[in-house]
Amino acid sequence: MEFKDVEGNTVILKTDEPVHHHVLIIPIMGQQFLLTKHKERGIEFPGGKREKGESSLEAAHRELFEETGATGILQYVTSYTVMTERSFTKDVFKAEITAISEQRHYHETEGPVIVGSLDDVVESERSRLLQDDCIQYIVREMIVCGSAEHE
Predict the structure, then answer these.
(1) Assigned CATH topology for domain 2-145
(2) Global confidence as pTM
(3) In angstroms, rounded to a whole number, what is the distance separating the alpha carbons of residues 8 and 138?
């Protein structure tokens, strides 16, 4: 499946193995989404890059904790590739949050943001990531899967 991102780049969604260098986590706490406020980009889902010797799943657990203080049960959902001069692919994980604790410091972010719906995030505070059709599709069709409480 193909999409265009907010900058007009082609984005290809595929389900393969979680072996890519970048990870994105879509955390769910009961009937709410757990987001993070990046210091430069705004409110978005947590994510980042794998470190040397780390699997995508390990990176997803680490990034989730570093950016939100949360831990949970993670499940691989899909991968997507953004086609640019320097194309990249992200592995996407769903996280069922089991615990969250306040941290003295959040890596690259201002910490957790909890919302009932992505529409609750003020448009001017949304990162580009939350505006992309591909991410909206993943959340709506692959994560929530028809569950009205997140719509």
Answers:
(1) Nucleoside Triphosphate Pyrophosphohydrolase (3.90.79)
(2) 0.85
(3) 18
